[in-house]
Structures are given as C-alpha cells and as structure tokens.
C-alpha cells in the first residue's frame, strides 16, 4: 500500500531517515504491546528509539499519527499470500498466518491496543481500515483463482471469503477469550471454504469478483 503523500513519517528514503523511522516504529510497537494506546507517549518513544524528541514530534506529531504510520508499515511488511493450488489449502494458510499473528506475545497485544484505539479515534480507525484492506487485497486472488478452477461459483466475493476466515479468530481474541490456536484457525478456514463452495458468498450479478 502506498503511503499518503506528505503524511507525517511516511517518507521512505534510504540511509539515516529510514533507520530512524524503523527505530521509532519498533519502539512504538513495543510500547503499544506493553502499555496499550494510553501508554504511547512520543517522548518515551524517542527515548527508546534513541532518537531526538524533536524529530519524533516533527515527523509524526501525535500518537495517532505514529500509530497510522505503524499500521502502514505493518501492512507493507506483512508476509505475502501462500498459494497451495486449492481453495481449502490457501484459506488454511491464511488462517494460520492470522492465528500466529494474534497469538504472538508481541503482535497480539499490539493489535488489541490498536483496535481499542481505533474504536475512539477516527485517524487510527482509518489507518486500521487501510491495513485490513491491504491484507484482504493481498489474499483475494486466491479466491479468484479458486473460482477459475471451478472450486467456487462464479460471482463469489473474494473479500467476503477472506473476511470469513479471520473473523472467528478476532472474535476469540477480542470477545470470547477462547484460545486463538491452530485448531481454531483450521476450523475457520474449513468453514469458509465449505461456505464458499456452497455459494454462500456468491453474488449472482458477478460484481463481487471485482471488489478488493
């Protein structure tokens, strides 16, 4: 996903500037994991990153600006999709990737903090939406390929299938408190694949195929 032109902290040249950005985003992620959004202080981020406080304030301005850039970087750095040659296999790989992220000792708390912040801050919410739009667009071609192979009906909405894989895992993390384990990931993938094959996500007009 391309960075917004002129947005704080989004210029990505090489050398010292890139190193500073990487250090600041790493420190921000650590603080979010440890203390949540409420504990994200730009001065603390600068200290942890060993970067001048003025640099952090000038480039990112506010904690929400920093979180927006962190989400942008996370989307760019996320692993590419895995193509196994079958819808069931591809969705399973997607589910296991989500599961590993949400159950990771650092990434799990980081995502919870960002989601909590997005619930009450529009800028963070917009950044989170962009993050997930990027990830859905990355995996949607797996569903498009499955339709072409005849594994799912014409008009199947790729984005809806991908959302159906991860939704149960986020529910476990944020609402029910049930384990986000591999078994849950496999069940989510199997359910989404079965529903897709049965036409649950098919749009009879065929328009869903073109949505990211």
Automatic annotation (TrEMBL):
Is Mitochondrion set as a keyword in this record?
Answer: no
Keywords, ordered alphabetically: DNA-binding, Transcription, Transcription regulation
On whether Calcium is a keyword of this UniProt record, the answer is no
Tell me which residues form the DNA-binding region: 41-60
In terms of PANTHER family, this protein maps to: HTH-TYPE TRANSCRIPTIONAL REGULATOR RUTR, TETR-FAMILY TRANSCRIPTIONAL REGULATOR
Every copy of the HTH tetR-type domain together lies at 18-78
InterPro entries for the chain: Homeodomain-like_sf, HTH-type_TetR-like_transc_reg, HTH_TetR, Tet_transcr_reg_TetR-rel_C_sf, TetR_C
Name of the protein in question = TetR/AcrR family transcriptional regulator
